[in-house]
Amino acid sequence: MGNQGTDTGVPEGIGTDVSDAADVSDAVHEPAASGDPGSVGQQGTAAPTAGGETIPRQRRPLLDAVHPVRAVTAFHRRHHPVTLVAIAATTLAYAALAYHRRWIADDGMIAVRTVRQILAGHGPVYSPYERAETDTSTLWTLLLTIGGGVTGVDVARVAVLTGLLCAVGGVVSALFATARLHARLSAKPRRPLLPAGALLLLGVSPFWDFATSGLETGLEILWLGLCWLALVAWCAETPDTKRQYLVALLIGLAPLVRPEFALMEAVFAVAAWLLIRPGKRRTLLLFVTAQAFPLITEIFRAGYYGELVPLPALAKSADGSQWNRGWRYVEETLKGYFVWIPLAILLAAAIAHLMNKSALKSRTTTILLATPVTAGLLLGLYVVKVGGDFMHARMVLPVLFLLVLPVLVVPVTAVLVPAVTATAVWAAYCGSTYSVHFYDQKHAIAEDERVGYQQWTGRPNPETSAAYTNRERGIGEAIASWTAHGQHVLTSEGGIDVPLDPSLPFPFAVAAGRLGAAGAETPLRDEVVDTLGLANPLGAHLTVTTPGRPGHEKELPWAWILADYGDPAVVDTQEVLKGVSPQQVAAARHAMGCGALKELLDSTRQPMTFGRFWSNLAGAASRTALVVPADPFAAEKKFCR
């Protein structure tokens, strides 16, 4: 097997050829440390290069890096020309479709404002006077910050292009990983391969839509593709010491991609360990390597924001269960594009193809085949449990990608060619019609966000901040007018204007449910009051007020907004908004000054000092678990008794 000291990187019972010996990624195992038998290697082995000379195996990675022609030649030798053409055609088609459908969602604009605040020197916040973590993906925010800082262009455009590059990079990585997997399964490692599971990327239009969208879906695809490549090309073939630590570092990034990807981290980490089989000391060091960045990030999050998870996880009740709604969410994707057809075809063909393969007796190959399928089923179960998402198909995409990783490309055989043909017909039909047997939008469990924002912005490709600021121009114009007249105002998307509390350190506050659009138009110095809890610590901890839509079930009552931001001389003495009494406002304000609720607000609004950081860190667990009654009178009773 690929993890034994006498292994050459070829599976049991399978032959090899000179192209494998010349491949760039065939690095030598390093000498085993004491008590670490999984790292024994072949220091004396020599291998022929493309030019025919014999080079010591331990020197080849460096020499290949110096001689790119040799690296390209070795790369070409490993893969059949048909395989290379198939991979290139699939990748280019996917990239073209994703670019054609480029856009940025309102939720993508949320990350854009956070990055703009970072670049302006205000820190990773949405509004400068309240530390709220609005972005689910820490790594995505980091990538956009680097991209925006280096290029100096509109961060929204950076988000669109970065997502596209990540998605395409993930697809390319996964395609080559699967090609190498099938080389393990074949007595002819260089036999031609055709796209199979990869056709799902061309047949299911949400794969195109969310390659951009300003969200982290492209990053998810990249991480999954790289992890798959690392397992197949590194862990299963040449697990030398340096590569082991790189794999551990890569897999450990999972919760920084998305918090629920910690489930994927566990699956990929177990698979990598089984393939490498390090000793106890190496296992401990690899574990520490994997957890280093997530641990540092978690300490910063707890100390800076005072929470153990980003606010969207609290606002969306990510620890809750909505099994029925979650299944309906997944079902809409499976039925909406007849995805069950290619999945059934490819599963049946793969089983028939593998039945007579002696490679299945290999422990290494079994692990490789089982890992992405297990990860996909586990992630799918999580998606069903939490009730899916309010965006159509978005959370199902990484599940589908994982399930088809072992069959992204398949060999040309009598069994598999008909399956590829049938899948290609399905992809051509679905891809050309964008959606077949699509759900009725009026009765759908989730929304087609791209279509919605095309209509709302009036642009076929709403991919810039201007697409949103032009639509929200009323907020900017009103703020400019109030500034000219020296007025400080609490306003909203719905046209509610109330005098702002004069004690607040900013001149304007904008209450909005469409957080990204409002944030694009509101100056960075001013407060954006999120009415759905994604950027509002109080709103994220509320009890559910509008059940039925994940991510939007905790709508912040106006009594709390007026108590927090309205001028007490006005909102405490008269009913400024129909249905919101001065008594409700007074109760809300009183509750915010009591007990654990006061501490919650202090953790985000008091100046950041070492003492505040330590207090936030120490109380992060209890603060994360805090539940605030949406009714101001109930909250007053709970916190001020």
Care to describe what's here?
By secondary structure, the chain is mainly α. It folds into 3 domains: 18-77, no CATH class; 79-443, no CATH class; 473-513 and 557-639, no CATH class. The chain is 56% helix and 4% strand. It is built from 32 helices and 8 strands. The chain has helices at residues 18-21, 60-66, 68-78, 81-100, 106-119, 138-151, 155-185, 200-203, 205-209, 217-235, 241-252, 254-257, 262-276, 280-304, 311-315, 323-336, 340-354, 363-386, 397-403, 416-433, 449-457, 465-469, 473-484, 515-521, 537-540, 558-565, 568-571, 582-592, 595-605, 610-618, 620-624, 632-639, and strands at residues 46-48, 54-56, 193-195, 409-411, 489-492, 498-499, 508-512, 527-530. The strands form 3 sheets. Strands 6-5-7-8 form a 4-stranded mixed sheet, sandwiched between helices. A two-stranded antiparallel sheet has the order 1-2. Helix 10 packs antiparallel against helix 11, helix 16 (323-336) crosses helix 18 and helix 26 (558-565) packs across helix 28 (582-592). The chain is elongated, with a radius of gyration of 27 Å. The relative contact order is 0.11. This is Terminal beta-(1->2)-arabinofuranosyltransferase C-terminal domain-containing protein. Residues 507-620 form the Terminal beta-(1->2)-arabinofuranosyltransferase C-terminal domain. It comes from Catenulispora acidiphila (strain DSM 44928 / JCM 14897 / NBRC 102108 / NRRL B-24433 / ID139908).
